[in-house]
Amino acid sequence: MSTSIRNVDHVLTNYTFQEYYVAEVTQCLQKCLDNEMCVSFNFEYSKVGSKKCELNNSTRAWAKEKFQERLGFVYYD
After folding, report:
1. What range does the domain containing 9 cover?
2. How many domains does the structure of the chain reveal?
3. Residue 36: its pLDDT value, please?
4. What is the pLDDT of residues 9-51, one digit of tens each?
5. Residue 75 pairs with which residues in a beta bridge?
6. Contact in structure between 12 and 40 (CB atoms under 8 Å)
7. What is the pairing mode between strands 8-12 and 16-22?
8. Rounded to whole angstroms, how far apart are CA atoms 65 and 60?
9. For 59, what's the count of Cα atoms within 13 Å in the CB-facing half-sphere?
């Protein structure tokens, strides 16, 4: 999994199948790696404390029209 500067403040919408609250991005990555359906995730980087981790069953490459701006989040695939 990786990200780039163009993924900051963006997410993949309508493909989230599971949500968690975690302390850091590495925990979100581990949740994704532990689930065979997960191929990307959205991570809430800007919040203090527990951050939202949204596991996706698609990627930006497969669903370009669903890659949208969302402040405070970063997309990883």
Report:
1. 5-76
2. 1
3. 97
4. 999 999 999 999 999 999 999 999 999 999 999 999 998 899 9
5. 42
6. yes
7. unpaired
8. 8
9. 11
DSSP H or E segment with residue 70: strand 67-76
**Distance separating alpha carbons of residues 33 and 69, to the nearest angstrom:** 25
**Paired tokens of 65:** 């029209």
Q: Where residue 63 sits, what CATH number does that domain have?
A: 3.50.4.10
Between CA 13 and CA 34 the distance in angstroms is 21
Question: How confident is residue 6, by pLDDT bands cut at 50, 70 and 90?
Answer: confident
User: Which residues lie below 8 Å from residue 51, measured CB to CB, with a gap of 6+?
Assistant: 21, 22, 23, 24, 25, 28, 43, 44, 45
Report the C-alpha gap between 43 and 7 in whole angstroms: 11
